[in-house]
Design a protein that fits this description.
Helices cover 40% and strands 12% of the residues. Strand 26 and strand 27 form a beta hairpin. It has a seven-stranded antiparallel sheet with strand order 4-3-2-1-7-6-5, with helices on one face. A six-stranded mixed sheet has the order 24-29-28-27-26-25, sandwiched between helices. Helix 8 packs parallel to helix 15. It holds the Pfam family AFG1_ATPase. InterPro entries: ATPase_AFG1-like (IPR005654), Myotubularin (IPR030564), Myotubularin-like_Pase_dom (IPR010569), P-loop_NTPase (IPR027417), PH-like_dom_sf (IPR011993), Prot-tyrosine_phosphatase-like (IPR029021), Tyr_Pase_AS (IPR016130). One of its GO terms (molecular function) is ATP hydrolysis activity.
Length: 1282
Amino acid sequence: MEGLSTVNNVVLNRRGYTIQGTLILSPYHVVFSFTPPSTPSSSTPSPGPTPVAPKEIWICYPVVEAISKSRGSFLLNQSNNEVSIDDSRDHYTSSHIRLQCKDFTFYSFDFVNDGICTEVYSKLSTLISRPKLENDIKAFYAFDYRPNLLEQKLETKGWDLYDPVKEYERQGLVSGEYWRISTINEDYKFCPSYPNHLVVPSSISDNVLKHASKFRSKQRIPAIVYRHRGSVNGNIIARCAQPLVGLNIQNRSIQDEKLITEIFKSQESERFSKLDESNEFQHQPHRNLIVDLRPITNAMAQHALGAGTENIENYRGKRTQGSNEKPPKNVNVNFQEHQNLRQVDKIFCNIDNIHVMRDSLNKLTTILNDLDKFPVNSGTSNYPLLQQALTKTQWLHRLSIILQSVDRITKSIHLNNTNVVIHCSDGWDRTSQVSALAQLCLDPFYRTLKGFMILIEKEWVSFGFKFSTRGDHGGCIGALYKKPKKAQEREFTDTSSESSEIELPVNSHTGKVTSFLQRAATHIKNTANGASNNNSSLNLEGEVGENGGKFLSSNSSYNGSNEKSPIFHQFLDSVFQIYRQNPTKFEFNSRFLKRLFYHYYSCQYGSFLCDSERELKEVYKVQESTLSVWDYFNSRPGEFINPSFKVDDGDDNGVLFFNYTDVKWWFELYGRSDEEMNGLSNSLDRKFAQMKLTITDPFILYQSYIQQGLLEKDEAQLRAMKEFQKLYHRIIDYRPPEELQIKMSLLLREIELKQAQMMLDSGKSGSPMKLGSIQRYFRKDPEAQKKQLIKVITDEEELINFPSPPGLLVNGEVGCGKSMLMDIFASSLPHHSKMRWHYNNFILWVFNEIHKIQGQKTMMANLGQKKSLSMENEFILFEIAQKMIKKNTVLMLDEFMLPDIASANIIKILFTYYFKLGGVLVATSNKLPEELYSNEFHKSKFKSFVGVLNARCQSIDMMSNKDYRITVSEQEPNLVVKMDPEHENNWDILIRTKALKISPEQYEKPLHELGSPASFTVYNRVTQLLLTFFDNTCYLDFAQICQGLYSSSDYITLASRYRTIILDNVPIMTIKMKNEARRFITLLDAIYESKCQLYMRTEVDIDDLFFPDTRDDISDEIRSRLPRDFSDTLDVQEEEMFSKTSIALQNPYRPNTSTYEDKMETFEEEQRKTEVDFKNTKAFTGEDEKFAYKRAVSRIKEMVSSDNWRSEDRWVPIDESMRPWESHEEFAQKVTSEVLEAEADDKPIIQGLHHFWAMGPWTTNQGKRLKDSIAKSWIRSSIRDN
């Protein structure tokens, strides 16, 4: 081999290992030859050493990204103590060369002295940079490479693999009637960066294309690249460059608008011509979407450069009445009116420009360069710190943004009958990425080996991705340059708008730039400059040429290209992310992607040497002198076939969906281990699965979900989950001591004996003790307590040092992740006695238990039993606490609150007993413990309970304002707003097609004929439902379900019986609709907890649904929809309510005689305590609901708009055992039989009328106190009858 240079006694340092060998510099490769150390053999030793064949490491020059030279051995510059330093060499007189390669391999070569090192460094700089210095593409190895035997035997060469006409025929785009292939660019003069075959609508002439090209950057007009055959709609993808809207944002092109309009119109006409009248897709709305892949700031800044983004109103022009569109017969009569305006929308996808992407990769390369000092999985590196540093590169985040854009386009096309036009700035970077990835997901052909090759040729090569410029072929940072002659310009020169994004021209028009555009452009300029500054640590001093190229002075070093960017690398990494989630959907494996990445930079094949199809075929005629990269893969297909591949025959016609948040490091590409880059959780999961073990620590599980991309890292959630982890370790082995219950039972027995002795001494016969009378045994004389030597501690003081683990109260705003964290904790806790309740369910269960125990006592008393009631049973709430502690030592409550005084008093007593029996409470709430009881009435009574809660539960405030529930779906929301003039038609279509999924034959039937009435029973009260469908869907009207006499038990039963809830006519809830708003929120809570599918029609948008009358910024349209009919009546009711409340507070009626035994207060003291602050209307105007409405709005948005909520498998009905209020025949028969067996004769079971305190029968004197005449007569007649 000619031109070889050999250097002996060279030491290679790589990944923590060193080996000595010979360095060979060939014209196209640097080769390191070495003899590996011999390994001892276990067989009989031979007389001499076993010869070992030498090995070689080949590094092609274009792969080298950076080269550097330093004095001293490389070993002196690293801190890896595990590497032993050879004392036979003088490491201080040595010098070393460091090679950093584009395939993320790193090599350090130590030379004996600096003279040899300098000579090699100069030689390498010349060899690596020769194509760029000579400005000669033929200096690359591809023009000197000769095919091997396998590549010579191929029948079909790689250059012949892609035929655009055949590919478009396969997609059905060469129909003649609707589409045609234009040859306007046959000689590449129309658009030098476009292919010579362009698919356009048949109705568009080449003359229109010529005029339209003047309005698009680089003449890159909208051209169709894909037609979706996986759906009967046949939607299309078109790609182009940004429009030249200009500084005033007023420039427009009639021809460009006509071209895009005809693209949409042709697809719609073709769709109607192929769908028969009975096809259900005839009713699907037609949509069109323009996707600007840039951040909106970048797009706006381009206006200052004469470009910009579309004025979407110009593309919604009226449809012609004489068009050949054929509407379906069975659609609504408003269809033709709807045809007047075409639905065209535009979105921005926030994918950053080439400079930001380059900066992100540079940060990643720096980390990998430092990591190369250590062996793979050496344990020397700190994994958490490493992963934190990797996260800061933002590489995975930017991949996720790209995949999110692809996900949205894929779902829009396949599910929503949407045509898509994609562009970025010039339409060859971000556009190529997203367009190719979307087609990869939509068409299973592109996921085969051959199909993927065609996809690359079509979307990347033919549509002008700048492979040479973006890869910086022939450029090596740090390489020495001699000042060359002024290079001749390439025949095809093009300045990228991606680069020009960062510069604002200084001319007369600059003064017209608006302040917004100036700020936007400045932001992008600073971002690009920051990325450019981080491109290399080396300085470059040289002259700047006319086109931005650098002509370096003698002995200067190359500092990198400002046009270089890892665009194709990002595409392959994105394909890997989708492949990793769906390994059976791809015919090729990850090795195929990795080798394709390598050969993009190797320049061994001619496929990726040029910036356009024109350069490839006409300028340099690469196809005549080089091999295609596909010859390499096709000659050895066995290496790249995925054995897990299965032909896709699923329900989605081969369309691939993925989770764009589930991104991980492609550790194989970066030459490190999965544990190093993605964390220990991956390997631990595999090891635990092999050992049939499960990770149950909630904090570790939460971190693993973040690393898997299932959750987004959130500092507030991390702090809260750390507290859950501490709680987990406190209670994992906890068992409440039985002695607590024994002590409580003995105490009650002692009180019972004391009561019996008092009865005996007084000569009275035994009788059941009334509830509350036991309090006098614990009542103390304040004067006597002062003289006692032993202090009687309060419940709060007792529970502070109680021998049970403290629980946890998690407070936070709506949607911050409290319930999700509770889900992780509840599912991971391996405790034998735990229970998860929503507060509404729990309080209903408590009320039911109270009712049941009171009923049993009343029944026993009326059956004439002589035995006195047991004191232990007299404590009803204590008995319920005993049941709770037996069933669930750890009680988990969602949405913990104290909404009214009745439930608050019960919760206070119940949980005091529960804590004293050793129970542990874990709860989430939207309020701090001090604010759980927000009512002003008797609030002082609950201060002690707040102290009890703080004593038995640790509190944490998440302090997060982020609402994760509001993740807008890419599909149409399950919501119709009456402000839309076509809401009737949209509502009918939504219910029939999505909620009911009925066949097209039943579209003409009214809804009431498709469904039937039904009923359910709650507390022996039968509720009629006017309309239900298929026994799993119910149709509700707001007036019926939220303005009637319904409670949370009714709503829980509804959500547990019907998987789908259709709620119609939801009005605006004003501040005076307190009851309706509370019921509606309770209904939403029940639907949310059971994860039902919700379809809803509202008067206004969700954000304006609750209390808009309290705001000053509402629109006139919403103000006009506010209810007015009852305003006067409500004002009168409000005045009467205030006056009655004031009288009741100042003159309280006290039926409980035990109250009078308390210390009497003076009139002035009582008057001060009962003063009413009429400015604080929280208790009357629904102010307390204002906080709950935030949660309701958040939950509505999630239920009607989130993709995660759309799965019907999410439905989790509440178990029947937790719904005791429903009547069941077997339960009723059992109770009836028990009562009949207990009867002594045929006397009625219930004797006398008992008031609801269960304190005994009503007496005549008590009846006289009633003020209501009807109730008084009813009580008197009942007493007289008995």
